[in-house]
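User: My advisor, Dr. K., asked me to get a structural model of this assembly before our group meeting. I'm new to this, so sorry if the format is off. These are the inputs:
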Amino acid sequence: MAIKTYDEYFNRIKKMRRNLYIAGDKVGRDDERLQGQLRIFQETYDRTNDPDWENLCTATSHLTGEKISRFTHIHQSVDDLLKKQLMTRLLCHRVGGCIMRCMGIDAMNALSVVTYEMDQMLGTDTNKNFLKYLRYWQDNDISANCAQTDTKGDRLKRPHEQVDPDLYLRIVESRPDGIVVRGAKIDNTTAPVGDEIVAIPVRFMTDRDNDYAVAFAIPADWEGVKMLVRPAYLHKTKYLHSPVEGIGDAESFTIFDDVFVPRERVFLDGKSDPRQTPFAGFLALLFAHYHRHSYTGCKPAVSEVLASAAALVAEYNGIERTTAVRDKLAHMISTAELVFAAGQMSAYRAEKSASGTLVPDEILTNAGRKLAGEEIYNEFKIVADLAGGLCATMPFEEEFFSEETGKLANKYLMRNPKISAENQQRCFRGIENLIVSDLAGVMQVAGLHGGGSPQMETITMMGRYDLESLKSIAKYLFGIEKELPKYERPPVTPRAMLERFRALYGKT
Amino acid sequence: MAIKTYDEYFNRIKKMRRNLYIAGDKVGRDDERLQGQLRIFQETYDRTNDPDWENLCTATSHLTGEKISRFTHIHQSVDDLLKKQLMTRLLCHRVGGCIMRCMGIDAMNALSVVTYEMDQMLGTDTNKNFLKYLRYWQDNDISANCAQTDTKGDRLKRPHEQVDPDLYLRIVESRPDGIVVRGAKIDNTTAPVGDEIVAIPVRFMTDRDNDYAVAFAIPADWEGVKMLVRPAYLHKTKYLHSPVEGIGDAESFTIFDDVFVPRERVFLDGKSDPRQTPFAGFLALLFAHYHRHSYTGCKPAVSEVLASAAALVAEYNGIERTTAVRDKLAHMISTAELVFAAGQMSAYRAEKSASGTLVPDEILTNAGRKLAGEEIYNEFKIVADLAGGLCATMPFEEEFFSEETGKLANKYLMRNPKISAENQQRCFRGIENLIVSDLAGVMQVAGLHGGGSPQMETITMMGRYDLESLKSIAKYLFGIEKELPKYERPPVTPRAMLERFRALYGKT
Amino acid sequence: MAIKTYDEYFNRIKKMRRNLYIAGDKVGRDDERLQGQLRIFQETYDRTNDPDWENLCTATSHLTGEKISRFTHIHQSVDDLLKKQLMTRLLCHRVGGCIMRCMGIDAMNALSVVTYEMDQMLGTDTNKNFLKYLRYWQDNDISANCAQTDTKGDRLKRPHEQVDPDLYLRIVESRPDGIVVRGAKIDNTTAPVGDEIVAIPVRFMTDRDNDYAVAFAIPADWEGVKMLVRPAYLHKTKYLHSPVEGIGDAESFTIFDDVFVPRERVFLDGKSDPRQTPFAGFLALLFAHYHRHSYTGCKPAVSEVLASAAALVAEYNGIERTTAVRDKLAHMISTAELVFAAGQMSAYRAEKSASGTLVPDEILTNAGRKLAGEEIYNEFKIVADLAGGLCATMPFEEEFFSEETGKLANKYLMRNPKISAENQQRCFRGIENLIVSDLAGVMQVAGLHGGGSPQMETITMMGRYDLESLKSIAKYLFGIEKELPKYERPPVTPRAMLERFRALYGKT
Amino acid sequence: MAIKTYDEYFNRIKKMRRNLYIAGDKVGRDDERLQGQLRIFQETYDRTNDPDWENLCTATSHLTGEKISRFTHIHQSVDDLLKKQLMTRLLCHRVGGCIMRCMGIDAMNALSVVTYEMDQMLGTDTNKNFLKYLRYWQDNDISANCAQTDTKGDRLKRPHEQVDPDLYLRIVESRPDGIVVRGAKIDNTTAPVGDEIVAIPVRFMTDRDNDYAVAFAIPADWEGVKMLVRPAYLHKTKYLHSPVEGIGDAESFTIFDDVFVPRERVFLDGKSDPRQTPFAGFLALLFAHYHRHSYTGCKPAVSEVLASAAALVAEYNGIERTTAVRDKLAHMISTAELVFAAGQMSAYRAEKSASGTLVPDEILTNAGRKLAGEEIYNEFKIVADLAGGLCATMPFEEEFFSEETGKLANKYLMRNPKISAENQQRCFRGIENLIVSDLAGVMQVAGLHGGGSPQMETITMMGRYDLESLKSIAKYLFGIEKELPKYERPPVTPRAMLERFRALYGKT
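Assistant: The format is fine. Below is the predicted structure of the whole assembly, which you can bring to the meeting.
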């Protein structure tokens, strides 16, 4: 069967080569510091195997017609996009934050479009390799990280201008049987527990950056790959266990130390074929686009998790009915609803690309992701506001269970006779986990930067929005132009970019 | 034909009784101070008769199967809601702001649901009268104001508690052939040029407020109706005419001085039948709901009109490509897109009520309207920011055309050699019209309060949102509850309210 | 006596040459469309002659030792700065907005510093002329506009790069007895009723812009000066007169059509002496600085006027004690207090320049002005929010006094039995004047742009702030540097700029 | 000598009774988990003994005329307030956040005023005891926590209404020789390492809450006192040591298990003398006031620490000169400057109370603290924004120093050839410490809630602000009142409250 259980998945990654480095140790995927991250991936495998979630978490492969995990599916319809978004939201509720498995499949969707278009325009034969690789994914229910962010060196210089040419991942050698790559990718969430790494470019490349126009996929323990791992822990508990305490993430700073990639796993190679170089930017943008659309699923969930905690502690603190509290909750709920609606409408307005893969509306997707990013720190502020200082000053759990202090500690924790001291503690400790912890910091930064910060969405949006048509409204109203065409913004998907490409690079 | 031309409409209102009071004059509908308001209504009649707009501005009557104006249509499908919203947005672009004809039909949609439900529950016979009245609307392409806001007196007191019992509109006598009403309604936009007034309650009514549970429709020049009119003017021009200069609105403070309403035009009468009283609140809420959904069409257009002016003046000022300008434009565009997407998704999630009328999702509609209201002043600020001080300090037009100063004035107005002095002037004068004028103030206040201020949307949203289900997320994550039901917020439409009604008031 | 009455002032400007153009008419200073502006200036003359205000509105001339109007005084002490700021705030309360007479004296203060420094460095003899001119001001209680903003043409080009060289005011001829200037200045608030115009540069000038490095003073009706006037009116009332209705402003687009300025009134002339050119930027900046410090007096007053109206209408609407209302009032009050405190502390930290004139701290002055500018639109929003729609839809006054509708209109205006219908009307009509009128738009734009928009303050602030010292904190904390010098930001006044000047241009 | 060294201080607290509970252990003050907190206190002792800081960190005792630590001084002059504020700011720079030693002395200042006033009004003899206790502080350079926040139980009920009467700290017995208290205080920052605990009420008390009107001081290891301690750690480093890594805090949930307090250490006892009960609220408010004034010193420093890190990482990332970055830095700098100026002006407007102690202006102090609290989360957002994701995903330090990965890790960390890999790492690791760590969460919550959240400042401000005088501006402008008194807000200090007290409770 194409869908795998968590145990099947875990047993295979346990066997991988030890190429993870954590605080001086060289470890395998069973290192206990990866448990938090694994706990999240487990949720995705468990729900996919859960009949109650089948409708949402599985899909039908357009390659084989088989039932597969939605995390390995290429969007064939509006409904696929809507279900991906909803699945993301609901799974995030269950782990109190990002479900973290969308990066890989977002990259795969982008590759499905770009390799197809490239083949059409250049007569290359890349999509066939991609589809073969996709088949491997679907048959094995693969988890993968998308490695996009280069270390970048001096940010005002292009890749080829850097003092050290390796500061962007590059092809040092291109041979008939494959390529050798050197460089590093950072911010690789989940990479330490993924089966595979899908590497793609981070930006547009010029014809002086051909060596940097590279995309490929390799197993995460492949020869030459070294992962410097940064796990974030929540506060573990001894007595009052809860789902939230087990959650964590694992980031990787991944070094590609002259790694050989077989040709069939190479999806972009500007070094041997400079005509491919312009597709680097297209791929970078399209991955970001799919990933931002995924954010319209997860970020509403993060807002809801925080709003949920805020509403609960407001109840426990007895202030739930006050105007100030309801205003703040309404603000968080509004954000969640608006971001999700933006993602849904992006799906409704999606366009089928030539490859058959659906591409959601860009303006709306970016508008939604942007709002979410702008609000994330404010949402933490609201939770802290309604919780009060105790979420940052709670004594350790042991004090509530010890002979000497337990009775007194519990006595003074009481707020509402209807709510037990234990539940009071669970509530404040849960909030401590959510907003006063290492992971809280990671969630904040990820909520801002993941998929690109609001500044990036602004740039994307303004690069694609038809400002001249917008201006025609004022020109008409002010009498500068006689007529106002019936202006309704058309969906903005990569078609426009493709057309520009075709004009610039297309064969006749 | 059911669809009328502007001339047909104007000729009939010209004949109405003179019951308008403007600055001490008693005038008819052809008073020149109403021209700005009429100019807006003309747009709705002209476009409905314009073949290019037919698909959007006309609909098929569910009563007669005839082609009618969409401004007289009861929503029968998701597509109807989507088209209403889009039509509103596109017409607003053409008048540089609110198209102002949605109030009446929003009230009619609410009445179509409420009279039907009331009949079902109470065995009354009101919907039949409503449908007859609706037929009259559709056959004559009626324009109407919805008069909802009472003067309210002391706002912390209920209607029956006021020192003067007339401070909310009330039934002073209920007879078999009709009712006599007394009171006043304020903020009645367009009422001075409408054919009809549809009056509905502004709030929930208790069983001590039966006399105030009243809804009806009457011709705008009916015996006893007095309108104190407040028109807002833009700055008229002598030389450089433009669409924006002709736009205005006309507000009415409408007094009902013991007005008799024939029974067949009465849609709610708590005085003679106190069982009808609870429906007052339902009707108030449902009108607000349809009206807020209309705002998800007009408010994005207002944002776009302002963004359009901002983008144009940024170009003329030569600062269009700077980061700061693009950030601000992106912010306005995002707001427009998010509010419109909220309205669209409210339509996609709409529910068909028992009457056959579609009701959009409440949470999303309110979230969209709320964001729009919060942003309106900021949007004016951005236009002012990019325009610079000149939009507030431009010499009068005559100075640019006079022998003595014209040449110099035009010389010094030049900014970019590619843009003529005339267009420079048109741009700044247009912005002056939009943001430094009486009407600008009205647009700001309307953008904040129309359909209810953000505070009202917060109250509505929090009154309907299922906060307990939201809290279950935190309860699960924090270990307070064992299971997390797969929580997806269902559409929130009046069904829940109806069920509560049925439980409270329903016959067995 | 040096201090003049309003009548003395008005009688002398009445006699000026008719060089004002309003809507095609060529008029004198007694044109009724200037009454609103004159009403504001009257307040400054009346209070200066009012014994109750003597301590605040008068000062002792450092030239003559005589008692003079503070509007003609050069700041000699911290106390002078504090009193200027407080006088501004209190006078603004009385006119419901900007008192508008600070521009001229702000320019004079800047000139007092710059001419002195220039003489010191270049051996020129300008300060003597300046002091003579100042003496004329003080002896005659002069009102003047400072004309700073050029029309600027293409904003990305420097003055000498413009297609039309006149788009910045320039010296076309420099002779021993004076200069001839050509160009235009815009946004010249109060210029139509001022005795004098003090013209100064708007930006830094390079050595290719010598012709544009020019500052001088001339009578407002001087040969060759043409003012295109744009007055803004409030809504005049017939029955319920009030101070707010009489207030207005008058802006000028001032054309200098080859105007000869006698040498003793020339304060900067880069054409004949290019060594003076660098002082253009210094003067531009220093005027802006004094003017922003004045804004720390007037802007708190504007916030307070709006907060006052908001608090009053909240009381009248019966919602004064709600949390939401108090939050909003507290926000406005905080802004007022913080901006004023910033100005006061700028005074306490002021530095005495070599000329003897005090210069307030730049960072704080800019921080205060910036906050004020960012908040202005939000403050209008709060007033509209608490007032409700009626402030935009009030019938005209006549309807409340007519036989036919007066009684009914007043009956339905009642809200609180303790507050008469007349006062209800006064309150809403006053708010209409403040926020739904031409002048409201002007106040919004002025609140944003006057003295420079927040973007300008950001630029100024970041140009002067010692960022390297700030960074030393992080360097110390992160272990990059061993020691943290006891860093306390010193006052930032023009001394640093002067030192840079001296290094660059100083004689040896 | 009155001023002690850190060693003297540490040696005495090391000897204290073991009454601290940390994660199940019963420990003394030398437990290593308290090192972070001690590191901060050490800074205060070290600087007080540092000749370079003498002028700021020491003061002259008004009791003895001796040189003492400013942390034990009662403000006798405006200069004292200014120096306290500046000292706080500069010390906070050195520890990267709150200096944490102000609570105790803030409570002492409040007691100095309240005990004096109480004696004046009631003829009690408390101030004498207070002064004796103060002498002990000054002679021994005492560090103390102020324990104010009760656990509060149901927040909508008063102390005497709680189901468990102990949920607010109360006097269970009052005897001639002292009182016995029971209850708990939470959020007691630094209490685990303080010499003393000064306990005061958290709110106003009615005459049914006499038992809860209690204030006293006891040694922190006194019989019956149990502290449940919650330390927050930063990330310790192995190789690249830095000041920021050593910083931490220690919070206490302090239980008073029938603790006897000798009479001479009791400063408020409503149980034996109910006339003292009204002073509970006065004391609560006045401590909050002094503490908020301290926040006008520390919060600007926190903003500056964050701005400093933001500026540094912007430089390292090569984006320092972009508009977007400068806008964000300017915003943080403005906040710091405005909050500090608010505190300084509060000092300049301070009033000398009858006791001789200075009391700063309340409105301004609250306005400053409020702005700081509103901005704190946004400031973290800005740092994260400019740093990028790496601050949350940095590999552990060991990876940069190991044989196997060190060279590669350092190679790829390079950004700017002028900045070494080590400094790059120091910068990102420092930021990780500041914004992605347990302590970051604590700093966020403390920045919001410490001294009272913005909501509390709003309540205080609106409770004291003279709204009626403010309204008189609108009344005058709108013609409702004839005259506008020259309204300048007087300083708001406890005088007004005292006068109300005197009217209500004063002896005749």
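One thing worth pointing out at the meeting: Chain D touches chain A through 83 residues (CB under 8 Å).

User: Perfect, thanks a lot.
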